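Notes from hallway chat w/ T.B., transcribed later so I don't forget. T.B. wanted the structure written out for a chain they're using in a teaching module, and asked if we could keep both sequence and structure tokens in one place. Agreed to drop them here.
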Amino acid sequence: MKIVTEFPRKIVEFPDMGIVMPDGCRLSARVWMPADAADDPVPAILEHLPYRKRDGTIYRDQLTHPYFAGHGYASIRIDMRGNGDSEGLMDDEYSEQELQDACDVIAWAAAQPWCNGNVGMMGISWGGFNCLQVAAKQPAALKAVISLCSTVDRYADDIHYKGGCLLIENFGWASTMLSYSSRPPDPLLAGDNRWRELWLTRLENQPFLAPLWLKHQHRDAYWKRGSICEDYSAIHAAVLSIGGWHDGYRNTISHLAANIEAPVKGIVGPWIHKYPHYAAPEPRIGFLQEALRWWDRWLKDLDTGVEADPAYRAYVMDSVRPARWHPERPGRWVAETEWPSPNIKTQEVELIAEGNHAIVTSPQSCGLAGGEYFPFTFGPELPGDQRPDDALSVCFGQPVLNEAIDIVGAPEVAVRGSADRRQANIAVRLCDVHPDGASELISYGVLNLTHRNSHEFPEALVPGEIVNARVVLDQCAYRVPAGHRLRVAISNSYWPMIWPSPEPVRLELSAATLMLPLRPPATGDEVTFPAPEGATPWATETVRAANSERHVDRDEKTGMITLSIVDDFGEVRDLEHSLANGSIARETWAIHPDDPLSALGKTHWTQTLSRNEWSVRTETFAEMRSDAQSFMVSARIEAYEGEKLVFERDFEENIPRVLL
């Protein structure tokens, strides 16, 4: 990455600008802007997050926000209420209070003497979600958004449910947020006498969100609120949507490009859950330059050519050897002037010939090669060689390819068959099989068959009764070379991506058809991007180096199979304000191949903050199990000042299991 130190305009930074909401709650903002903005007003750019600007997202903030400020913007990074250095309490993700706060900040910024009245909003993940949701509320000053790694559907395409199946990440992310939000504000900003009061009040009121999310197992009003797919026409701001093929949120870019009536463009690269100017796998792109083109057009009314950009730009990844991590992915950029594209044709492939049948009875442990739902660390989180999971699935191998094919879009598999239980899951994986048998995951999809017609109104299966269903796999862009072949692998378990059915299931399939979106193979890059740039990186010293590990163990006595993950994010000290922060996440996912009710998830997070003689630490623990009737979840927070335990709290709840 090229580090830029000289900008068109001199920058001034405000590390703790207070913005008071109408109810009196003070939000803490870190703001960068041109030093002469009062004399030459500029547009504002807002990023509104719970992830702590002082020590949480500071690495990416340092690269990004000063860069925008130096090019003539007031860049505002807000701690949401109840998090970081802001006052107030948070009760859920994407609450009406959160979105209203963002609207109030937008109105406040637009009215400042240093602002020209135009505001943009951006973010990745949580910030990518809420900038779209805020846009749907149409605050007058909001003219453009840049949304990365986000979703248009909170139920069907977030970390909660997928295809009506309960994602393990529903529990995992609730555990993560319990830990993230357990940390106090910085005493240097909140004050020596105030920080502890804010912290203890926050801890006493902090929710553990897994039970709430489990109480909404169908696509009800809870999920519809904030799902912009309910009314795409509500978005009037210009939208630039960006994502990565190694992220969990692969589908949003296509949905937005196809449905938004306002100006919209989409970019999908080979990346994990990161901003693309420092993401991996490489190649990275000059995201900040692309963002400036977007902001300059819609916030400054400059002709930057963005309206003439292709509707959809995607990186078609070449086939590689399966590995848990790829530092780079060879391939090429393709461009479509409109999306959906008339250049992409669907090829149908019959998987089960008429008169034949396939019996699917997968062990509960099938899926361990699937990797993380959204890889976040630069470590062993990607899908590995699929052969272990292929061996536990029913596989439909295709002939060896005589010439390369480019798959661009969302493959689908239509199935016809019956189950011997009232509820059953089905997982479909599309794999690239190398000549030596190595199997690389291209895309996958899951479906709870009770949701075959509706996520809002599921219908129980009648054992033995034939039903039709369609499994939509995630969007992808992948070249399968000549000499390789495709494999479709079907299982009725996918652990630990989805929670298992309450009983072992036998599926009998009498028909299955693959719908493959094919694009004429590109001969080279059809579009190019500038090389990555960024502002001066965060200045730190390493106290403890980061490290990620994962292990799969089988207890030969009990038969239990356990996936253990330790992500030590290390500890660093800020060289400007001396705050040191550290974090360790530990996860355990265990199951017996023959018993879906043996499924167990456990997490343990440690967060530390210190400066000189002052130190605090939070420990959070969570556990999830189920029986045939209920989900059982529990959690605990412990907070320490120095070595003294100053707060402890337990959560425990059983939630009825409905038609999942």
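Follow-up for T.B.: The longest helix spans residues 96-110. Might be a good example for the class.
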